[in-house]
Predict the 3D structure of the following.
Amino acid sequence: MNKDQSKIPQATAKRLPLYYRFLKNLHASGKQRVSSAELSDAVKVDSATIRRDFSYFGALGKKGYGYNVDYLLSFFRKTLDQDETTNVILIGVGNLGTAFLHYNFTKNNNTKISMAFDVNQSKIGTEVGGVPVFDLNDLELHIKDEPVAILTVPAVAAQSITDRLVALGIKGILNFTPACLNVPDHIRIHHIDLAVELQSLVYFLKHYSVLEEIE
């Protein structure tokens, strides 16, 4: 790949896993070519945006021909490092954390929760979904080179745990708590507040039509 990925817009980068998932489904169904219009219908991103996203990576398709599914799948697999497994840790084995451990991103063969942490003595020393649960007090003893942590803990504990993770060299945090976390500039945080997302969805259902959102 000749393009400098550091110059790819963040909005484009966020859409790449979406494209990759759909391409995997196309490949499994035996389809060999796909147009930007077909991609648009499937992933709900307009054709112009898809073509612009793909243009950042050079010539991925031919006008009038569309895109070769096998080539695109191979390209995005390398771009997204699908051939390299990333071990992730999870902190907080409550209801949401337990659900994550049982799911463990089984459809993404490059991402795996390798260990979990909690303060509940009844959970420490057990396995949930095949993932070992350790004492949160021993966090520093177990973390090695895992780059990402998932936080599913009470909001009041989120910042203190985050400070420990930063000190241990964690590079990214997927935050499922409502807490606004303070971290150094080199740490990336993705905040996912399920309650806010649900409220937003209900609001849009009440006040906007699908056509208005597209416009």
Q: What stands out?
A: The chain has two domains: 5-78, 86-196. The longest strand covers residues 111-118. Strands lie at 33-34, 61-62, 66-68, 86-91, 111-118, 127-128, 131-135, 148-151, 172-175, 188-191. The mean pLDDT is 85.
